[in-house]
Design a protein that fits this description.
Belongs to the peptidase M32 family. By secondary structure, the chain is mainly α. Strands 1-3-2 form a 3-stranded mixed β-sheet.
Length: 492
Amino acid sequence: MTAYTDLMTFQRETEALAQVSGRLEWDQETVMPRGAAPQRAEEIGALEAVLHARRTDPRIGDWLDAAEGAETDEVARANLRRIRHAYTRTQRVPARLAAELARVTSVSQGIWAEARAAEDFAAFAPTLEQIVALTRDKAAALADGGAPYDALLDDYEPGATADSLTAMFGALRPRLVALRDRIMGAERRSPALSGDFPEAAQMALTREMAQAFGYDMTRGRIDKAVHPFSSGGGADVRITTRTSATDPFNCLYSTIHEVGHAAYEQGIDPVHALTPLGQGVSMGVHESQSRIYENQLGRSRAFTSHIFARMTDTFGPLSVDSPEAFYAAVNRVHPGFIRTESDEVQYNLHVLLRFDLERRLIDGSLPVADLPEAWNTRFEADFGVAVDRPSNGCLQDVHWSVGLFGYFPTYTLGNVYAGCLHAALRRDLPDLDTRLAAGDPGPATGWLRDKLQRHGALRPPRATIAHATGEEPSEGPLLDYLEAKFGEIYGV
């Protein structure tokens, strides 16, 4: 037995326990009885304490010291790199703090959901204050004298910094705003789909679309949740969606989006299962998969012509009467409060708002009590619409309630990565639209599986995209794609 073998045996057990913890969280979001929340918080907190103890076990340091330099295989070196990075970071966070943060964020999910339903930010504010305080402590411990927000970012996008993201987002914003303004001033309008769409039929169609995009239902399942998400890895990858009787796109595209996440996890080479490489390398790269599935593929003119036919078969005649009108309806640019329901043009403006506000929450310049006013003021300045209620404002997203500070910017980073991947994919698959129009995204999803998904976390995030596309990632391809697509739809 070598030090590397001993380390990886220990790591497999840790990864398996982490999957169990994730399953508890999935259960909490989907089918857990509401009255079980306090006990579940204790269970998750206890498991987190066990995981923290394993992740800081001093034997890991000894094994790493012995294995590093002795292993020359690319996979082994990548595993060692990721274990060393995680070990160093986890050692910096006291076990008590890790367990308390896990316990509080478990309870807070229910508190947030009830406050959101009741349109009562004040009911959630004390819990959010507690989460922010604990997250600041965690950030300070992780930063070890560096920038606290950058330390939080590293959990989701290793190598990213607030400064690098601010520069990228600064380059995105002017062209996004200019495109949005041209569209809003255009004479051409896109229709909105209207009608009544029974839930059972929506769910049947959404399962069909999930499987068309390669989701393996023998290793997954689709359930409903307040906020759609993907959970798990390897042989057990679950997704959730939501339905609206008047908006089937909500269900359909939430599902395709989450299938992108799930396909990444399901597509990783099984040899990496229950190792540090057997998962998506970062949330930005993960989001690139969900966004390219949802938008560049799922909202393309070719694939929407197939969806139009299937929706007509399922629901009867629609309020839009042609594939071209349906394509315009799917891609309609319109004012709206909700990030997850936003069109491609304005989506990143929603993310930039959250990125700026959460940095201020972490550095202490924005007290939690002032968050609704800060959100509403910024939203009206960015979108020209006054927020009418908390569920359309700062209570709409679950992320802060579960301590995911540093997560939001990865959504826009994922869009940037998706733009790069789409440009390369179209270069390699010039006849893709023929297959998409037939309802078959297989060539595209196969390309993504081969170029990116099967490698898991073998390479760092930016190197993962560069390896798949042959070029360093930049915001240019995304902006070019948006301007071409929506310029054509709206004649601007």
